[in-house]
Amino acid sequence: MKAASIQVILCKCCTELPAVLNVERLRKLAEESGNVISVMTGDAVCDGKGLAGIVNSAKELEVDRAVILACHKKDIDPALFKAYRRAGINEFMIEIVNIREEALLPHASEPERAQLKAETMLAAALARARLLAPLEKQTEAMKTKNVVIIGAGASGQAAAHAAAKTGAHTILIEKTGKSLKAPGIVMPHSQVVGAKGYGGNYQLTIKAGDKIENLDAAAVVIATGGGWTQLKGPLAKAVKDAMPLYKFHEHLQAGSVPKGPVVFVDTPDPAGKTMKVQDYAWDDTLETAIQLKRKAPETHIFVIFQEMRAFGLSELAYKEAADLGIKFVRYDKSAVPKIDPKEPAKLTVKDFAQGDVLSIKLGTLVFSSIPANQDNQAIADALRIPMAVDGGVRRGSVQRWPVTTPRPGIFVCGSALFPKSNEVAEAEGEAAGSMAGEFVAKGEIEFGGSVAQVMQEKCSACLTCIRTCPYEAPFIGTASKAEIKLQLCQGCGICVGICPSKAIELHHYTDDQIMAQARELLGGDF
Amino acid sequence: MTAAKSLVDGGAEVVLVEKKESLGGMARELTCKGIVECRNCGVCFAIDRANEVLKEPSAEVLLLSEVASAEKSEHGYSVKIKISPRYVTDDCIGCGKCVAACPVDGKAIFPPTGSGQPKIHWIDRSKCLHFKKGKCEKCAQVCPTKAIDYEDRAKNITRNVSAIVYATGIDPVDACEISRLGCGTLKDVVSSVDAERILNEKGKLLRPSDGKAPKRIAVVQCVGSRSVKLGVEYCSKFCCKYATKISQMLLDTDPEINLDFYFMDLRTLYEPQDEFKLWAKSKKTVKLFRTMPAVVNLGKDGKLALRAASETDLDITEREYDLIILSVGMKPAGASTELAKSLGIQTSEMGFAPGSKELESRGVFVVGAVTEPMDIEEAAVRAIAAASRIHRGASQ
User: Fold this and answer.
1) Given this structure, which CATH class describes domain A146-227+373-445?
2) Is the bond preceding B118 in cis, omega lying within 30 degrees of 0?
3) A6-135: what fold?
4) In B, residues 280-299, which contact A (CB 8 Å cutoff)?
5) Which of A433, B78, B220, B374 is most buried when burial is the number of CB atoms within 10 A of its CB?
6) Closest residue in chain A to residue B9, using alpha carbons only
7) pLDDT (0 to 100) of residue A17
């Protein structure tokens, strides 16, 4: 193998200009290190300035790797990597040292320590750079332009329209038989029961009526909405004709006003242990209560709740409702509202703030109908994405983009995340749909690079990696040894650390590379 | 910014007009709350988008700029933009030597606020001696890249666009408008915005009065939200979210801190509500009080004495703290400017500009927290949705 030849770039704005570091000492250290062919000053690599000079020199001197002392990698102009690529240097052969944020800024007032840290970091980076190996990312074409949307409620329909406009083929999967107008294909009475594959090329198993069908999908949007249309638990035993909020609202719109007092309760199952207290779309509850009070001012209206989550402008409705004479009673999980089946027209509840037990004459019981959908768990299991503690689908990190999930190509919107009003659900649907559409429009998926690889001769097929991997990337291959499905591997390194036979290696973060760096940083010999 | 990024991704050309000297809006002064693990606060999301937009060739970013007028033209709007002089060119690398050299008390040349992007400095003409007395050129002398340009002049430019995205955002409520909680009179009572700014700049929160690390901290919710007196009758929606995350972050920095959290209703948007309560239960040093504190006075030894009624009866208790953080709400910004009026943007009773289908049919899209209270994440969702609608309008 040809010996490593390193080009070192000292970016001017990060090393030289704040006049904290002794750049000559850094330069000398670099020049005197092994394998270093050239040390250059760069103008401002973050802005892509002076790239031509750097890259031409790299070509002339035939260096095959670079160490750049600059700022954070994400601040550096991607043009730098492209320019190096043209000079034949792979992006994985470039080691970037964040001298600005890790040495300069924390030690701005203590130049000696800043210098020591900068020199140590440079030495460590050089040690690592000597051991770097080029890696190529691979691409795979998406087999289809299908975006599968699960659920045809407010958010699902918005997602279908948005995705269709980007040129994707939309397939709307709806559990019930409700008829609707949406672009693309609509599959009523269908459910997703299984999924294989990865972002860009999923194979879904769909239960359509009694038939099981397979469906290719490049991206999936989960828009299952909220659930629960019936009372649960002890209340259900006592009250037969309770109404979910949306139904009550429909009746009210149609002009029917109930006789006797109306009680709104925040959940279909106040005594339920499995269902945690949720976000409720309080604006809908409050709006309905206000409408009722305006239509029939003499009706006694009670709203009983655990947590008044009147977000944003809903607070105004809360105040308006209270001003109109609607009574609000907060209860605690320790004393939930009760109805004696023998006396179905009487609801007792302990007012938590006052400590009094109230007895409310009951005409109609209306319950908030949109806590988390009970189908979420099955869909999350099928698509293998995590759930939040309260029964909603867990969204991915906001750091990336909203309405994403931890799995690429799977998006989530609306009340599938947590209950919310139609307006917000539609906005989320539009966002998720257009993002799914853009994902599909790329036409291919990129994978590989810094991913794990099993050294099969060391593998004892103990299954530890398979059980541990959060992305289900390892599997037992035809040779009865573990293999990594590259399209699924996110390069997290968990399997590498946990493998008892030390049979897995993470490219770009191999033991040798990490230890060489650690030796320089810690100064020890281990 | 998210709208701009989404539009550019979809192939559009974008002109981004920002009044301030850098991109990032409110998020510039907020701090990442993930010391141990990411807490999904969304602050980095805003700053990352700023970086991306600045690097987009098809996005023209105009800073220190304001839209003077927008007139309906054949295919959209003809927009007149006034760009104020910055007196520092793009060659600035943000080294800060000029700030150190500036002789003006309180400085006349500034770096961008907080984590704002890009890192180009700017000169306040009204304070700068060069403009006031015509002689000082200290910053130009020390600048290593010759980026100071005293000849910079205001520019007026016109751009023809097919749609306008109106996203002027919010201003925090001034905590000192509620004097009973000690803001403005007691040094160690800080607003959450101040607390975040300090955390963002210094990485730790010390008592402003003596620079010592606080051991007992109170966090008070709903300061300037749900307040009839201040005219902010709505719930600002994001305060519970950031306040719970700051609390968790403070405990991450120092597990010994005793933290009391005062709230009316816990409305942690986008987070399962129980999560914070369970977290608080798991920490011996964290207590939740569901009550609105009545008054904060100066107690013994420079400590702060906070008086509050208990949740279920009217017993009044006084507790002592080293530091009190007031979680302030927000007010819409720029909802009722001349420009907004000329575009036909109407404001609600509470001063928000909700936007409408009718406005969108005329190519005016109002997004972000100027429409109603929302957090960074929801603002981003709304912006992506608006960008999708703009693309659809354009492709029809």
Assistant:
1) alpha beta
2) yes
3) Rossmann fold (3.40.50)
4) none
5) A433
6) A438
7) 64
